[in-house]
Amino acid sequence: MKKAIILLVLLLALPAMAETYKSKFGSSVKLDGDSSVHKWKVESKLIGGTIDVNAAALGKPGKLDAKATVFIPVRSLKSGKKRMDEVMHAAMNAAKHSKIEFTLSEITVKAAKGTLSQCDSKGTLKINGKIKPISMPITVSRAGGKLTVKGNITVKMSDFGIKPPSPKLPSGNIVTKDEVKITFSWVTSK
Which of 1.10.10.10, 2.40.128.110, 3.30.1490.480, 1.10.940.10 would CATH assign to domain 18-189? Predict the structure, then answer.
């Protein structure tokens, strides 16, 4: 009996286990940039991957044991203009590096209210075969067996070995600015 009580106390003292959440429909990513001709955006509804996290622990401030791998197929990014998509996919070296990948290494909950958590995240972003460490604020909302992760970050194409495209027009070259803002809403469920 004494052993059973000790075992029960030890089990109750263990931290709650992380659960795996997988990508679901309803996700989206948008890249916004600028050029000498106009502002531009490309979008995708395809975000794949998984996140392992204890969703209940998102309800209180502190550092969490969490990991995630997220990917976006480069060719799924579309502007609605065929030629622009071709130039973008070529600049991103899509034939050789077909995915944008993010690997989460850390989440710290800064504030939590109800089912919404304001967090800081750290990880690595891989574009065009180049890996860079990043940190960005994110929000995580919990609803039933779903987690929705939202955030944004501004990156430079040149940091990932991408030369900002400069396609030729009859009136001259378009000069694309180096900075791109990435905004995402990633829907997952158990």
Answer: 2.40.128.110
